[in-house]
Amino acid sequence: MNEDGHKFRTGWLDERTVTVYKPKPEHMAIPGFVYGGLLASLIDCHGTGSAALALHRKNGHEVGDGAEPPRFVTGSLHVDFLKPTPEGIPLKAVGTIHEIHPKKWRVETEVFAGDTLCAKGEVIAVVMPSTFAVK
Amino acid sequence: MNEDGHKFRTGWLDERTVTVYKPKPEHMAIPGFVYGGLLASLIDCHGTGSAALALHRKNGHEVGDGAEPPRFVTGSLHVDFLKPTPEGIPLKAVGTIHEIHPKKWRVETEVFAGDTLCAKGEVIAVVMPSTFAVK
């Protein structure tokens, strides 16, 4: 519902998940490079999206079958920045998903710019508590 | 130099550092709440800014004395999300800085929305390598 949000879209690639995102000019850190917060945001949203896909599939559903996917929030986020990330090319986040228990999933993510592994991340995603009420 | 950047500004508060930032409407996750990526970005930039202030002071300088402060990049970022973060009120990041060695600093940060501790983070900040050339 956020018109100016990043609108990350996460999908399956075999047993892994993929989010592709092209940073915008306002995401530069210094000229030529993407700022770390954008990579952290990508890993964060890719993590919760991946967990949602995995639980949805475990519940017998696939995106588009009409059932509402579960929603997750981020419990914790860790990012290791490995290489400066060039701007102007799409970033690809590839995730591997581990079930800790049905309401808590761990997603390990690698972010590539072209063939270069720029960052690695881990998200602990938890099913959105009912107290996290939408106004 | 990024007109659309967050433009976080970090300053001293005794031996700790503070960054205050008011999220914008486009930073909402679901209506009423700030998205985690913004908190991660705040902790990231607060961490590198705090390390720059600390090394600058160690080198005998204060902001505004004419000397160019050192620049840092983020080696790693960890965020624990503790509470949903309400939108519409300024966030305050408060940092405690530890020198690991002169080119590598650890910054522990707490992010408050009003009196509520919403997130805790840790950044390992390293002096920007000369290979990270500005175009």
Automatic annotation (TrEMBL), chains A, B:
Name of a matching Pfam family: 4HBT
InterPro entries: HotDog_dom_sf (IPR029069), Thioestr_dom (IPR006683)
Gene3D superfamilies on file: Hotdog Thioesterase (3.10.129.10)
Thioesterase domain boundaries: 32-116
Highest taxon above the source species: Bacteria
CDD domains recorded: PaaI_thioesterase
SUPFAM superfamilies reported in the protein's UniProt record: Thioesterase/thiol ester dehydrase-isomerase
Protein name as it appears in the record: PaaI family thioesterase
Highest classification ranks of the organism: Bacteria, Bacillati, Bacillota, Bacilli, Bacillales
